[in-house]
């Protein structure tokens, strides 16, 4: 009875706009593409929450063959993108090549189906990341050409933080789902338009500080200035907290011994789009990550997202030195 009451109570607390109402007026084919991603993530959330998953395998109650949860998520997303009929090319971090989906499709999608699957067994927040480009190409694009991007969080609640052309800011949608059905609905719960200076930091790839002196100095600065350390090792949750708190900085630098880890096409670019639409800055140490051209699906990049002051500090102290990549 409590769960059944929850959706109504949650709905009362929301801004109330449904996803359909939010998307109304956008390009119908882009709406279909974005809706396919939301539908996929509802299904992925359901599988994660109703199956016994660990790092290696996912046995669910519906007879699906045994699949690692990230491959299951990958399949769900590819199937939904194909069903949308508007996606020309898709590429996934799990299968890093450009796959033709629908000849003549209007958009192409790159996605990380389940980011953080290495921490799913600890029940930390994991997520899906996606970027939508016009046309049929992914390699050769930059983040500047993105028309939509999203971070999906499979946490205590399932949310999507979406940014798209024609909409100011980034927008959080909450999945209202009573779990007894698989037909939850998405309601708009927040709009993010600024990331201000504030003492919250999420320092990734810490081992890079061992042979990247600038990064070591930056960590010392955060400690001396008594920044709050908030880091889980799951990119989507660690970055999304900065939008929700409206302050702080996330970084994942590289060094000669700890190469750049995060994928440009599937993670760094799409999240950079969402963050910059939400008023944050991004940088690979020399400038906005949206200006980096995708040369290969395998490209990786160091990255910093956050307030203007902290991203500038990252560029000044860590920068982008060839020997560090
Ligand atoms: P590190 C998770 O495996 C991931 O790809 C991102 O989600 C996360 O931000 C990063 O790796 C963590 O890297 O080196 O800090 O553990």
Automatic annotation (TrEMBL):
Q: Which UniProt keywords apply?
A: Calvin cycle, Carbohydrate metabolism, Chloroplast, Cytoplasm, Disulfide bond, Hydrolase, Magnesium, Metal-binding, Plastid, Transit peptide
Q: Which residues form the Fructose-1-6-bisphosphatase class I N-terminal domain?
A: 30-188
Q: Which cell locations does it reside in?
A: Plastid, Chloroplast
Q: Does the keyword Transit peptide apply?
A: yes
**E.C. number, please?**
3.1.3.11, 3.1.3.37
Reactions catalysed, as given in the entry: D-sedoheptulose 1,7-bisphosphate + H2O = D-sedoheptulose 7-phosphate + phosphate; beta-D-fructose 1,6-bisphosphate + H2O = beta-D-fructose 6-phosphate + phosphate
Q: In which broad location class does this protein mainly occur, judging by the first location in its UniProt entry? A: plastid
Q: Which GO terms describe its molecular function?
A: fructose 1,6-bisphosphate 1-phosphatase activity; metal ion binding; sedoheptulose-bisphosphatase activity
The annotated pathway is: Carbohydrate biosynthesis; Calvin cycle
Q: Does the keyword Isomerase apply?
A: no
Q: Tell me a GO cellular component.
A: chloroplast
Name its co-factor(s): Mg(2+)
Q: Where is the Fructose-1-6-bisphosphatase class 1 C-terminal domain?
A: 196-318
Q: Which GO terms describe its biological process?
A: fructose 1,6-bisphosphate metabolic process; fructose 6-phosphate metabolic process; fructose metabolic process; gluconeogenesis; reductive pentose-phosphate cycle; sucrose biosynthetic process
Q: Give the source's domain of life in one word.
A: Eukaryota
Subunit relationships: Homodimer.
Q: Which family does it belong to?
A: Belongs to the FBPase class 1 family.
In its UniProt entry, what is this protein called?
Sedoheptulose-1,7-bisphosphatase, chloroplastic
Q: Which organism is it from?
A: Porphyra umbilicalis
Q: Which part of the entire protein is covered?
A: 166 to 490 of 497
């Amino acid at each position: 009875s409590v769960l059944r009451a929850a959706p109504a109570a949650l709905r009362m607390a929301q801004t109330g706009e449904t996803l359909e109402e939010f998307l109304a007026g956008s390009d119908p084919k882009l709406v279909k593409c974005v809706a396919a991603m939301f539908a996929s993530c509802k299904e992925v959330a359901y599988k994660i929450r109703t199956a016994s998953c660990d790092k290696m395998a996912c046995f669910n109650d519906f007879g699906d063959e045994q699949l690692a949860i990230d491959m299951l998520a990958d399949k769900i997303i590819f199937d939904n993108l194909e069903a949308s009929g508007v996606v020309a090319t898709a590429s996934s971090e799990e299968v890093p090549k450009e796959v033709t989906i629908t000849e003549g499709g209007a958009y192409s999608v790159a996605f990380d189906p389940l980011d953080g699957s290495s921490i799913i067994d600890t029940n930390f927040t994991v997520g899906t990341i996606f970027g939508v480009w016009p046309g049929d190409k992914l390699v050769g694009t930059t983040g500047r050409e993105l028309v939509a991007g999203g971070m999906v969080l499979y946490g205590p609640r399932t949310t999507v933080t979406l940014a798209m052309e024609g909409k100011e800011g980034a927008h959080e949608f909450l999945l209202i789902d009573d779990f007894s059905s698989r037909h939850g609905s998405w309601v708009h719960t927040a709009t993010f338009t600024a990331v201000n200076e504030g003492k919250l930091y999420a320092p990734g790839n810490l081992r890079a500080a061992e042979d990247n002196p600038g990064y070591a100095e930056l960590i010392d600065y955060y400690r001396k200035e008594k920044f709050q350390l908030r880091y889980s090792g799951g990119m989507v949750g660690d970055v999304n907290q900065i939008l929700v708190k409206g302050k702080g900085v996330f970084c994942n630098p590289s060094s000669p011994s700890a190469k750049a880890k995060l994928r440009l096409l599937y993670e760094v670019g799409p999240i950079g789009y969402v963050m910059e639409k939400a008023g944050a800055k991004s940088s690979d140490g020399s400038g906005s990550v949206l200006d980096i051209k995708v040369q290969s699906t395998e490209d990786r990049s160091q990255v910093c997202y956050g307030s203007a002051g902290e991203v500038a500090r990252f560029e000044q102290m860590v920068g982008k030195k060839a020997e560090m990549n």
